[in-house]
Amino acid sequence: MKKTFLIFVMAVCALGVNAQYHTFNASLAGMGGSGVAIDEFQAGMNNQAAWGGLDKIHVGLGYNSRFMLKELSDRYLSFAMPLGKEKGVIGLNLSQFGYSQFNITKAGVGFARRFGPDFSVGLQFDAIHAGTADEMYGSATAFTFEGGFQYRLNDKISLGSAIFNPVQVELNENTGEQLPASISLGMTFTPDKVLMLSADVVKEQYEPASLRAGFRYSMGETFCLRAGFSTGPFIVSGGAGIKFNTLMIDISTAYHQVLGISPAITISYAFEKK
Predict the structure, then answer these.
(1) For residue 62, is pLDDT > 50?
(2) pLDDT greater than 90 at residue 32
(3) Local structure of residue 45 (DSSP, 8 states)
(4) Burial 116-146 (b: 16+ CB within 10 A, else e)
(5) b or e along 31-61 (b: 16 or more beta carbons within 10 Å of the residue's beta carbon)?
(6) What backbone torsions phi and psi does residue 47 show, to the nearest 5 degrees?
(7) Rg, Å, the chain Cα set
(8) According to the model, what pLDDT value does residue 137 have?
């Protein structure tokens, strides 16, 4: 038990103190975790503005095994439903990080809307519960919010930004521990129909600014390859996606030179309009 907990603590330190509050599905993880400016359903977990242009009901679920340790695994579910033409999109993000001795559960309800053809905004209200088997620390629940925007500058360049917990909500009043805040600024460049480049600059509280960047190369409408990297710590990643009509399966793996690989899978489905 002590050995397992020690490995858990070491891995969390390597990830950064904020890692457990953010989940990356396989499509973004394959591009170094970048994607704050990508206007697709999968990107709505980290920037709700990505849902603004959806015209179908989407649902997705996934699993991320960080460094092949079940103690650091992520399980997540996303759902988005358009309310009608120009009425916006409501969404739900659920995720859980950790294991029986320590875990963090996050439940978020969001809304996004596109204003005109190029600008979208999104907002999500979160409930975050941290639980531990240690009676000394117990458990705690906090409420906060996050949101972002996306702007399509032209046919090739899109910009995006997302912020999490800007009010720095207190997680545990007994210890004074606060939920860390973060802000991301990103851009995508799509020179043609097959290639998309993505890059984000991320500043998380208590951590230095980091870079996340990657690309997606599409081979027709049914298959794509992804690769990328992130700094702080330095991690390289790659992945692929395959589409069967409205069913999308994404896989990825990320590599840390000390802690090893982190495979992930996401399955998402878009319901056809009646």
Answers:
(1) yes
(2) yes
(3) G
(4) eeeebbbbbebebebbbeeeeeeebebebbb
(5) bbbbbbbbbbbbbbbbbbbbbbbbeebbbbb
(6) -150, 105
(7) 18
(8) 64
| Predicted structure pTM score | 0.88
Count of residues in the chain: 274
Please give the sequence-ordered ranges of beta strands (E in DSSP) within 45-136, or none if there are none: 58-65, 73-82, 89-99, 102-115, 119-132
Cβ neighbourhood burial of 86 (10 Å; 0-12, 13-18, 19+): exposed
User: Mean pLDDT, to the nearest integer, of 261-271?
Assistant: 96
Closest CA to 107 of 120, 92, 118: 92
Structure tokens at 129: 């519960």
Q: Which domains does the chain have, with CATH numbers?
A: 2-270 (2.40.160.60)
Q: Tally Cβ neighbours within 10 Å of residue 76.
A: 21
The residue with tokens 């977990």 is 45
Q: In 3-state terms, what secondary structure has residue 22?
A: coil
Q: Please state, in angstroms and as integers, the Cα–Cα distance from residue 142 to each residue in 11, 51, 179, 181, 250, following that order.
A: 24, 25, 8, 13, 32
DSSP 21: G
Using alpha carbons, list the distances in angstroms from residue 5 to 90, 148, 162, 191, 195.
Answer: 38, 35, 32, 47, 42
Show the tokens assigned to 205: 């509280």
Average pLDDT value for residue range 19-33? 81
Amino acid residing at 209: A
- CA 232, 92, 69, 128: dihedral to nearest 10 degrees? 80
Cβ atoms 55, 76 nearer than 8 A: no
pLDDT beyond 70 at 235: yes
